[in-house]
Design goal:
- It is a single chain.
- 20% of the residues are buried.
- Strand 3 and strand 4 (62-67) form a beta hairpin.
- The chain has helices at residues 7-14, 18-33, and strands at residues 2-5, 43-44, 53-56, 62-67, 73-80.
- It has a five-stranded mixed sheet.
- The protein has a single domain, classed as YaeB-like fold (2-Layer Sandwich), CATH 3.30.2310.
- With 85 residues, the protein is α+β, with helices and mostly antiparallel strands.
- It is 28% helix and 28% strand.
- It has two helices and five strands, in the order E-H-H-E-E-E-E.
């Protein structure tokens, strides 16, 4: 699975606390294996973000992403607290 990081994601990622970045990197490895593993709590978003998904880094931080039509490429759009919704 290929992951493409948007400029917004990279900007937001740089502002995360170091411990959150470290956990996000570990969880990305799980995500690459199975994006719907229960520990990630992956779910579809509603409203203005319909069509996108989110998975949890921890209780406060989330990554917003979408799959391309083939399912082989994933676009990470943003990362942060619930404020990114």
């Amino acid at each position: 699975m290929e992951i493409i990081y948007s400029p917004q994601f990279l900007k937001s990622y740089q502002r995360l606390p170091k411990r959150v970045k470290q956990k996000a990197e570990r969880l990305e490895k799980q995500f690459r294996t199975n994006p719907f593993t229960a520990s990630l709590r992956t779910h579809r978003l509603k409203g203005r973000l319909k069509g996108l998904y989110s998975f949890s880094i921890n209780y406060y931080y989330r990554i917003i992403f979408e799959f391309d039509e083939s399912g082989e490429v994933v676009y990470f759009h943003d990362v942060g607290t619930h404020d990114i919704y």
